[in-house]
Design brief:
Strand 8 and strand 9 (490-494) form a beta hairpin. The protein is an alpha+beta fold. The longest helix has 68 residues, at 116-183. The strands form 8 sheets. The chain has a 5-stranded mixed sheet with strand order 4-3-7-15-16, covered by helices on one side. The protein has a 5-stranded antiparallel sheet with strand order 9-8-20-19-18, with helices on both faces. Strands 1-2 form a two-stranded antiparallel ribbon.
Length: 800
C-alpha cells in the first residue's frame, strides 16, 4: 500500500522535472522568436493551449488558469540508444536549413582563389572537346572495325543460308532425277556386246562395232587387278561411304608433288555413278551430284557389287569396256570355260590395266607405250606403299612390262561362220523387231544350232568339188544348207565357198541369192497332183506338146533336156528322170495357182518371176534356204517347222528373252509326204538318167565298188536335182529320216556353166555332206503311215 501511495508522487516529481527541462530547452530554442510571440493579436491568450507532459498527457490551459499557455510540443519517448526506433527518431535532430536571404553576421572567408570559375569553364570546355574527339574516334572505330565484322558475319549467314538452300534444292532435284536409277543400277549399266555361240558353246561371232565388253561375276575377277585398281583409284574404298574428302586432298598433293596427274580425286563409287548415271560433263554440279548419290549407292549395294560393276564397265581405251575385254584386247587372253580372260591376268598386266581408267586413250599402251609404262609404275608404287606387293615384285613387274612381247593383239574370230552369223543376226532383228545398231551393246547371248565342226567340213567338201569342176564346167561357187526337218534348226549354212573374198565373199547365196531351181521345183507340182488322186504309177505320154498362149504371145512348146521324147511312161519314171513334158502336162491338169500354193504351203516364202506353165521347169527364182525348208516338210511327215538358226537368246542377267517356235504345222497329209519320199528315193526309176550308183544314191562304199556290185548298206534318201535352162544354176535337194540337205552350184556373176548335168555340180557335194551328217545314225527307211491304196503297181491317195 505504501508503495502504491508513493508511486503517483514519484511520477509527478518525474514529470515536473522533465517539464522543467523541456521548458528550458524550448525557451532556448525559441528565444529569437519570442518577440513575435508577444506581438500576437489580443485574445490569443484566450486560445486554448496544450502542454505536453512527460507521460504525453495534454493539459488544457483553460482547465488550469494558474499555468501559462505554451506551444503544443510532443516530447520523444525514451528509447534504447541502439534500437532502430531511436535511430529513426534521431533523423529529425538535423538542424533546419537557414532561410534564403538571411545574413549571418560572421566573417566570410573565400574558399577558392579568384578566377576559379574561368579556369573551371576552360577545363570543362577542354574536357568536352576531348570527350567529343574520343567519341568521334570511337564512333569511327566502331564503324570501320565492327561494321566489317558485322558485314562479314551477315555475309556468312547469307552464304550459309544460301548454301543450305542450294544443298537442299540440289539434293531434292538429284534424288528426284536419279534416285530411281540408283535402285536399278544393275539394269542401266552398259551392256555387253552381243555374242553368238555354236551348239557346243564356242563363240562364232561378237559385235564389236560399238566396243567390246564381257561382264564376269565377282568370283571370276582377278584379285590382283582389284588391288591395283583400289591402290591407284580409291585407297579407302572398302571403308569410305562412297566419297572421300581426304582422298581429294591426297590426290591434289600427289599431283602437285609428281607434277602430273597420278591420282584421281573421285572414288570408285563416284566414277561408277558418273559413267552410268550422270554422264561425263565436267561441271561442279555434276561433281556435287556424285557426292550426293555416292552414299545411296553404298547403302543399296555391297562393296563387292560396286567393284564388280565398276570393273565390268569402266573404259580402258581401244574400244575395251570392262577388265575382261581389256585383257583380251591388250594381252590376247581368251575366255575359257570357268576361266575368263580377266582371271588370267598377272601382276604386271593388272598394273598396266589399272592405270588406264583415268584416260584410256591417253595411256593406250598400243599408241603411247612410254606413258602407259610410267602410269603402270605409279600403280605399282602405290601397291608397294599400301603393302599389296613387295619392292621385289614391283621391280619384277616393271621388267616384264618392258619386254617386247608384253602386249599381244586380240584374236577376233568373226570369220568362223560368216554367212551363218549374218543369217542369225537377220533372224534376230526380225524376231525381236530391232535394228542392227540396237544389237551391238544389247548384252544378248545368242545360242545357235550351228555345228561349227561340221560346217567347216562341209565348206572343205564344197571347195574341193568346185575346184574339180572349175575348169571343166566353168563353176566357181557353191552354197550348202543342212536342216533338221523335225525341229527346223539350221545346222549348217555355207553361203559362199570363199567367205573371205573381198570382192564377192560377203554375199550369201544360200539365204540372199534368188536362183532358178530347175527341175528341183517339180516335186511341188507332182505333190499337188498326187494329193488330188493321181498315182505315181499312172501313165503319161512324153511327146510333142504345144500350148497356145493368149494375147498374141507365141505358142509354148516345152522340150526335154535331152531333146528327145520317151513315149508312154509313168509319172514316177518321168519325175525321177526329170522329163519336162510330162511335168508340164501335169501342171496343166492341176493348175498353176494350186501348184504355186502347194509350194508356198510347204515353205517357199519368196520368189521372183511370173507363175505360169514354165515354173514347173524352175523359172521362178527362189532361195536355197526356202527349198530346204519346203523339202523338210516332206521329211517331217507333212508338218512344216519354220527354219531357224537361233535356239535361245538370253539377256545380260541370264534371262531367256527368246526361243524359236518349233511347233510343227501340218500342211500336207502324212500319206502325201510318204508318197513323195517313196518316189524320190526310188533309185531304180532314175537309173536311166543317172545310173544305178550315182551320187544321189547313199551307198556306204565307194562308187566304183557300188558299180562292181558292192554298194554296202544303203541309206534311203529322197532327192531331186535341178538345172536351169541356160546352165546358170545347178541344184540338188534331198532328205533322209534325219536331215535335209540342199546344195546350189554356179558362178558369182551368174554366168552360165558348161555341159553340166544333174550329178556334176551340186550332187557330189550333197552326197558327201549327207554322208558326213549321217555318220553314227542308224539306217532307217521311210515309214508308210497307212491310208494309201494301190492302183496297178503303185500307190495313190484315195479321194473322199
Amino acid at each position: 500500500m505504501q508503495d502504491e501511495q508513493q508511486r503517483p508522487e514519484r511520477a509527478q516529481a518525474s514529470a515536473t522535472t522533465s517539464q522543467e527541462a523541456l521548458h528550458s530547452t524550448l525557451t532556448a530554442a525559441n528565444e529569437p522568436t519570442q518577440a513575435s510571440v508577444q506581438d500576437q493579436a489580443p485574445g490569443s491568450e484566450e486560445r486554448k493551449g496544450l502542454v505536453a507532459t512527460a507521460d504525453a498527457q495534454v493539459v488544457d490551459a483553460d482547465d488550469d488558469p494558474g499555468k501559462t499557455a505554451k506551444m503544443r510540443v510532443i516530447l520523444p519517448a525514451k528509447l534504447p540508444t541502439h534500437s532502430r526506433a531511436a535511430a529513426a527518431q534521431r533523423l529529425s535532430n538535423l538542424p533546419l536549413k537557414a532561410p534564403r536571404g538571411v545574413y549571418y553576421p560572421v566573417a566570410h572567408l573565400l574558399p577558392l582563389a579568384p578566377g576559379w570559375r574561368t579556369k573551371r569553364h576552360i577545363k570543362r570546355k577542354g574536357l568536352r572537346e576531348s570527350n567529343a574527339r574520343f567519341n568521334e574516334a570511337e564512333r569511327k572505330g566502331s564503324r570501320w572495325g565492327f561494321m566489317p565484322l558485322a558485314i562479314i558475319f551477315m555475309a556468312f549467314l547469307v552464304v550459309a543460308a544460301s548454301s543450305i538452300t542450294l544443298y537442299t534444292a540440289l539434293y531434292n532435284s538429284t534424288e528426284q532425277l536419279y534416285g530411281s536409277k540408283v535402285t536399278t543400277l544393275p539394269d542401266i549399266l552398259p551392256k555387253d556386246n552381243l555374242k553368238m555361240y555354236d551348239d557346243q558353246g564356242q563363240m562364232i561371232y561378237q559385235m564389236i562395232d560399238d566396243g567390246v565388253q564381257t561382264s564376269v561375276p565377282y568370283s571370276q575377277l582377278s584379285p590382283t587387278l582389284m588391288h591395283a585398281t583400289i591402290a591407284i583409284e580409291d585407297q579407302y574404298f572398302w571403308s569410305n561411304p562412297g566419297y572421300d574428302i581426304t582422298g581429294i586432298v591426297r590426290a591434289a598433293l600427289d599431283d602437285i608433288t609428281a607434277h602430273d596427274t597420278v591420282s584421281g580425286a573421285s572414288t570408285i563409287t563416284q566414277q561408277l555413278i558418273k559413267n552410268t548415271i550422270l554422264g561425263q560433263q565436267r561441271t561442279a554440279i555434276r561433281k556435287l551430284q556424285e557426292i550426293l548419290l555416292a552414299p545411296d549407292v553404298t547403302r543399296y549395294y555391297t562393296k563387292e557389287q560396286i567393284i564388280t560393276m565398276y570393273l565390268n564397265t569402266i573404259y580402258y581405251g581401244d574400244q575395251a569396256y570392262g577388265a575382261d575385254a581389256a585383257a583380251q584386247i591388250y594381252f590376247g587372253l581368251e575366255d575359257k570355260p570357268n576361266l575368263p580372260a580377266v582371271k588370267q591376268l598377272d601382276l604386271a598386266q593388272s598394273a598396266m590395266l589399272a592405270g588406264l581408267p583415268q584416260n584410256g586413250d591417253y595411256y593406250n599402251p598400243w599408241l603411247h607405250k612410254d606413258r602407259a609404262l610410267n602410269r603402270m609404275k605409279d600403280v605399282l608404287h602405290n601397291m608397294n606403299v599400301q603393302n599389296y606387293i613387295t619392292h621385289a615384285q614391283e621391280l619384277q613387274a616393271i621388267a616384264e612390262a618392258e619386254q617386247e612381247d608384253f602386249l599381244k593383239p586380240m584374236q577376233v574370230h568373226n570369220d568362223l561362220a560368216v554367212h551363218y552369223s549374218a543369217y542369225t543376226l537377220r533372224e534376230l532383228m526380225d524376231k525381236l523387231h530391232v535394228k542392227a545398231g540396237d544389237l551391238s551393246r544389247s548384252g544378248l547371248t545368242v545360242m545357235t544350232a550351228l555345228d561349227l565342226t561340221k560346217q567347216n567340213q562341209v565348206l572343205k567338201i564344197a571347195q574341193k568339188h568346185i575346184a574339180e569342176n572349175a575348169k571343166i564346167h566353168n563353176m566357181s561357187n557353191s552354197a550348202v544348207v543342212v536342216m533338221n526337218p523335225h525341229d527346223g534348226s539350221l545346222l549348217t549354212l555355207v553361203g559362199n565357198i570363199n567367205p573371205n573374198d573381198p570382192k564377192s565373199g560377203a554375199f550369201d547365196v544360200a539365204s540372199q541369192g534368188l536362183r532358178q531351181p530347175g527341175s528341183s521345183f517339180k516335186p511341188f507340182i507332182y505333190a499337188t497332183a498326187f494329193n488330188k488322186g493321181v498315182s505315181p504309177g499312172d501313165h503319161v505320154q512324153d511327146g510333142p506338146l504345144t500350148i497356145n498362149m493368149c494375147c498374141g504371145l507365141p505358142a509354148y512348146r516345152p522340150t526335154n533336156y535331152d531333146m528327145k521324147y520317151h513315149g508312154n511312161i509313168t509319172y514316177r519314171y518321168a519325175l525321177q528322170n526329170s522329163f519336162n513334158i510330162p511335168a508340164v502336162k501335169l501342171l496343166m491338169q492341176t493348175g498353176v495357182d494350186p501348184a504355186l500354193q502347194m509350194a508356198l504351203n510347204l515353205g517357199i516364202t519368196t520368189y521372183a518371176g511370173v507363175p505360169n506353165y514354165t515354173m514347173v521347169l524352175g523359172s521362178l527364182s527362189v532361195h536355197l534356204t526356202d527349198m530346204v525348208s519346203a523339202y523338210s516338210t516332206f521329211g517331217n511327215s507333212g508338218k512344216h517347222v519354220t527354219p531357224h538358226a537361233i535356239t535361245e537368246v538370253r539377256d545380260s542377267l541370264g534371262k531367256v528373252v527368246y526361243r524359236p517356235d518349233m511347233n510343227a504345222k501340218r500342211v500336207i497329209s502324212p500319206q502325201l509326204a510318204y508318197l513323195m519320199a517313196n518316189v524320190l528315193s526310188d533309185n531304180n526309176s532314175r537309173t536311166f538318167e543317172f545310173g544305178k550308183c550315182s551320187v544321189l544314191y547313199l551307198y556306204s562304199t565307194s562308187q566304183s565298188q557300188c558299180y562292181a556290185g558292192n554298194p554296202g548298206p544303203i541309206r534311203p534318201a529322197a532327192v531331186k536335182t535341178g538345172t536351169s535352162n541356160d546352165f546358170r544354176d545347178n541344184w540338188t535337194v534331198g532328205w533322209t529320216t534325219d536331215y535335209t540337205v540342199g546344195v546350189w552350184s554356179g558362178n558369182n556373176d551368174n554366168s552360165p556353166m558348161f555341159n553340166v548335168t544333174g550329178v556334176d555340180g551340186a550332187a557330189p557335194i550333197w552326197h558327201d555332206t549327207m554322208q558326213l551328217f549321217e555318220q553314227g545314225h542308224p539306217i532307217r527307211n521311210f515309214t508308210n503311215p497307212g491310208g494309201l491304196a494301190r492302183r496297178g503297181n503303185d500307190w495313190y491317195i484315195p479321194q473322199k
